[in-house]
Amino acid sequence: MSTQAVAKTQTSDDRPQNPQSLWDRIGVAGSLLCVLHCVSTPLLIGYLSTVGLGFLGQEIFHQVLAVALLAVAVFAFLPGYRMHRRTSIVVTGVLGIFLLLTAGFAPEGLLPAYADVTLTIAGSVLLVTAHVFNRRCNDACQR
After folding, report:
1. Which residue from 57, 98, 115, 124 could staple onto 31, CB 3.0 to 4.6 Å apart?
2. CA–CA separation, 40 vs 21, rounded Å?
3. pLDDT in tens, 117-129
C-alpha cells in the first residue's frame, strides 16, 4: 500500500488527541448529566429514596454539579481562548455556567417553579455548544 493510500485511510481519531479536548469532553458529559438529573429526578424521586439514592434529589447535588462544571469550564475555556482567541466561545460558556449557578443557588422562592429546570437545560445546552466549538477550534489551531 502506498504512503498516500495509508494517509487517506487514517481517520481524525488516528491523530494525537489534544490534551485540552479532555476537558471539553468532560464538560459535555457533565452538562448532559446535569440535564438528565434535572429532568429525571422529579420523575424518580420516590424510587430514588427507596433504593437509598434520595440524595440525588437534594439541591446540594445540583449545586455540587454546577460548581464542578464551573471548574471544568475554567480548565477548558481559558487555555482554549489563549489558543483560538474566539471570544464568542468563552461568552457562551460563561453564560451557560451563569444559568446553571443561578438555577442551583437562587434563594428559595426567588424564581418561579419552572425556572430551575428551564435555566438548567438552557445553561447545559449553552455549555455543550461552547465545549464542542472550543474543542473544534483547538483542534483546528493545532493542525
Report:
1. 124
2. 28
3. 899 999 999 999 9
| CA neighbours closer than 13 Å in the CB half-sphere of residue 65 | 27
**Would residue 68 count as lying in a domain?**
yes
Q: Please check whether residue 72 lies inside any domain of the structure.
A: yes
Question: Number of folded domains in the chain?
Answer: 1
The residue range of the domain holding 93 is: 20-141
The C-alpha atoms of residue 110 and residue 124 are separated, in whole angstroms, by 21
**CB-CB neighbours of 116 under 10 Å:** 18
Assigned domain for 5 exists? no
Question: Model confidence at 6, in pLDDT bands (50, 70, 90)?
Answer: very low
The pLDDT of residue 2 is above 70: no
Contacts of 67 (CB under 8 A, 6+ apart): 101
What is the rounded radius of gyration, in angstroms, for the C-alpha atoms of the chain?
19
H runs (alpha helix) in the chain: 3-9, 19-50, 59-84, 87-105, 115-141
From 70, 83, 84, 76, select the one nearest 34 (Cα to Cα).
70
Residue 8 within any structural domain of the chain = no
pTM for the full model? 0.77
